[in-house]
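Tokens as discussed.
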């Protein structure tokens, strides 16, 4: 207390010192005293109130503790009394065992009395239920079945409660209700028949299907109730749980599988289109069934059954199994295409799962592939292998058929523009087109692979085509009278080359993506080269045919007979023109080449006739006459080939001008100017050789041996400035060497 008083005094001194720091504050001492007195009175009042409150609480607590003590003493006395009474009543409880047994027996008898009516009328109720089943009154039949099952289950439950180990009484009850079990099985059989035909029933009699679903729902509720009771008591009636809902879905699944499998009406032996028909029937059935399921069946089932989604899953699974089975069979190429087209395209198209009436419940993007990608790849590999063999066979057969046409005695057909042709290009590219259209139905990737295959086989085919055309020519040369229409069919072969070119371009443009063109450029170039070779060899063989007929008349050129007035050139022109009436049936790219080549060969043969030195002019008169005849005949050739090349843009002046230039050398009357004339000739045609000049001077007949040698040696020393546009022609012309001084030297 003394310590507390000292702390209080110190605190008060410190507080007063804080208040009286200035002299003027002494005037307020009285005011400060009154204020501190009020504060002291307030604190003392609060302190008294707090102490009073604490005292009241203590007083109340003591009172309650006193009451609790009295209550504990009362309870203790009561427990003593109860314990005393219990000890006195033990013997009495043991004497009540008979009463307990009587209560249990009374409970059983009460259950028996309650079900007495059903117990005595079990056979009658079973018969009535069977009649109701036969009449199609399934709901009423099920109601009676439920009553019977309830009676049996209650009796068995009471027996179980009384003595769970007494199997004899249990079996007795079960045997007595044996007909009820048969009734349950008969009813279930009827239910499953309706479920199997649910898609038909829902259209004709939806009420019947609804009744079946209600019965199944009742049984599901009873199953759940019995399972709950088993958890509590350990007892469950025989035959429970029935699981009719699970059985219903199993039956639906089997029904769907059977429906899918049962759509195959034909086999490959009876109908080549068996698979197409099979797949189309599946498509129609599945689409119809799902539409019915969505619009009608869905309304007959509770929402939690989600019947449409479950049926959709069943159909997808059944289809997947069926497609796997079909894929495992030894399918032909067209059957593989049909299967893959159906699986990869038709299944998710608007013709089936993508049908607008099935959305939004069916999302094709969420549907898995009916067959695995590995199986798809295996089928595609098998298809490509089979297709390769087929294309090779088809091309070989098409060529053999075309070869048979080559020996016919009738001319080949002409197209709408009058050009000869055979059916070979149309057959080949129709085959390619059909296979590409089929491949395009499956996938873009397969279409590209098939196109590459077609072009690859086309490359090999064209090589065989070239060889066959060559053999055709060789066979004809053995006997020029056979085949009768050799020229016309060789023209058709040439035209086919152009048709092949156009068809290849068209095929690539139609079926090949732009970014893939570079990968085929080398193959395309190779085919163009082969086709150009075939056409070139064909044109060459036709010109050989012409020049074999011209050979006797070419042999007359530059002979005494020719100088005396032979009509050999006239005959040559008529013959060439006659042949070119047939050659008019050659398509333009090759016809132009043909005309140019014929023109060149005629001029070459004419110049060759000069270089053969069949004649040597004796005097200036003969030289003049021969030169003028040469100029006249050059003009005939020019007129002929200008006529044949009308509209082609061919230069008909240059080649005939060579003949005229040679004629000018022969016509020259002043030998001193011969060197100048010959040098002019050499400057125009720089490929002319020394032996050509020697032969030309020999034909003139007035040049001595020394003059020839001087002219040749002088020309050899002179510069040569060839025309860049000049196409060499003399290099093809050989000259007999016996009289060539240059060679002797």
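Sequence:
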């Amino acid at each position: 207390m003394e310590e507390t008083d000292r702390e209080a005094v110190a605190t008060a001194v410190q507080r007063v010192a804080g208040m009286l720091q200035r002299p003027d504050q002494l005037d307020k001492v009285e005011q400060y005293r009154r204020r501190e007195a009020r504060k002291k009175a307030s604190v003392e009042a609060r302190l008294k109130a707090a102490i009073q409150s604490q005292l009241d609480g203590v007083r109340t607590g003591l009172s309650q503790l006193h009451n609790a003590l009295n209550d504990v003493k009362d309870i203790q006395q009561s427990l003593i009394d109860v314990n005393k009474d219990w000890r006195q009543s033990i013997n009495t409880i043991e004497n009540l065992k008979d009463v307990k047994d009587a209560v249990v027996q009374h409970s059983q008898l009460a259950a028996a009395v309650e079900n007495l009516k059903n117990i005595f009328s079990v056979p009658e109720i079973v018969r009535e239920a069977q009649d109701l089943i036969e009449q199609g009154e399934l709901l009423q039949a099920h109601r009676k079945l439920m009553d019977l099952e309830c009676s049996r289950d209650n009796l068995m439950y009471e027996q179980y409660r009384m003595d769970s180990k007494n199997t004899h009484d249990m079996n007795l009850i079960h045997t007595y209700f044996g007909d009820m079990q048969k009734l349950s099985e008969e009813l279930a059989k009827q239910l499953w028949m309706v479920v199997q035909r649910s898609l038909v029933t829902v259209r004709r009699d939806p009420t019947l299907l609804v009744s079946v679903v209600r019965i199944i729902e009742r049984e599901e509720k009873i199953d759940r109730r019995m399972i709950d009771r088993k958890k509590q008591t350990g007892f469950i009636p025989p035959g429970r749980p029935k699981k009719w809902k699970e059985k219903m879905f199993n039956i639906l699944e089997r029904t769907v599988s059977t429906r899918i499998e049962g759509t195959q009406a034909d086999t490959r032996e009876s109908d080549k289109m068996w698979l197409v028909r099979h797949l189309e029937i599946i498509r129609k059935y599945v689409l119809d069934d799902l539409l019915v399921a969505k619009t009608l069946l869905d309304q007959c089932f509770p929402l939690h059954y989600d019947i449409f989604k479950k049926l959709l899953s069943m159909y997808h699974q059944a289809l997947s199994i069926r497609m796997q089975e079909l894929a495992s069979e030894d399918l032909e190429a067209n059957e593989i295409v049909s299967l893959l087209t159906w699986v990869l395209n038709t299944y998710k198209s608007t013709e089936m799962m993508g049908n607008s009436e099935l959305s939004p419940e069916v999302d094709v993007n969420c549907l898995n592939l009916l067959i695995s990608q590995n199986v798809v790849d295996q089928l595609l590999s098998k298809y490509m292998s089979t297709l390769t063999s087929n294309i090779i066979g088809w091309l070989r057969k098409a060529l053999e058929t075309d070869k048979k046409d080559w020996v016919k005695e009738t001319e080949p057909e002409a197209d709408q523009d009058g050009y000869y042709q055979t059916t070979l290009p149309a057959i080949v590219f129709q085959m390619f087109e059909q296979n590409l259209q089929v491949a395009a139905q499956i996938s873009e990737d397969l279409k590209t692979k098939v196109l590459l295959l077609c072009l690859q086989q086309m490359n090999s085919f064209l090589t065989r085509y070239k060889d066959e055309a060559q053999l055709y020519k060789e066979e004809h040369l053995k006997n020029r009278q056979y085949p009768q229409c050799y020229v016309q069919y060789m023209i058709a072969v040439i035209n086919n080359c152009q048709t092949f070119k156009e068809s290849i371009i068209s095929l690539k443009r139609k079926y090949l993506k732009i970014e893939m063109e570079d990968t085929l450029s080398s193959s395309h170039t190779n085919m163009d080269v082969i086709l150009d070779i075939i056409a070139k060899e064909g044109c060459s063989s036709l010109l050989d045919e012409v020049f074999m007929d011209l050979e006797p008349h070419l042999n007359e050129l530059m002979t005494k007979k020719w100088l005396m007035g032979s009509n050999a050139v006239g005959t040559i022109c008529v013959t060439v023109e006659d042949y070119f009436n047939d050659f008019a049936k050659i398509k333009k790219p090759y016809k132009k080449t043909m005309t140019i080549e014929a023109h060149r060969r005629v001029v070459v043969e004419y110049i060759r006739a000069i270089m053969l030195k069949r004649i040597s002019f004796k005097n200036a008169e003969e030289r003049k006459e021969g030169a003028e005849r040469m100029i006249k005949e050059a003009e005939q050739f020019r007129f002929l080939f200008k006529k044949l090349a009308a509209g082609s843009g061919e230069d008909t002046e240059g080649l005939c001008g060579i003949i005229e230039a040679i004629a000018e050398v022969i016509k020259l009357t002043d030998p001193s100017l011969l060197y100048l004339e010959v040098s002019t000739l050499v400057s125009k045609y720089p490929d002319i050789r020394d032996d050509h000049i020697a032969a030309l001077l020999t034909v003139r007949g007035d040049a001595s041996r020394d003059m020839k040698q001087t002219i040749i040696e002088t020309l050899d020393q002179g510069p040569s400035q060839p025309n860049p546009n000049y196409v060499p022609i003399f290099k093809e012309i050989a000259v007999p060497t016996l009289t060539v001084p240059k060679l002797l030297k």
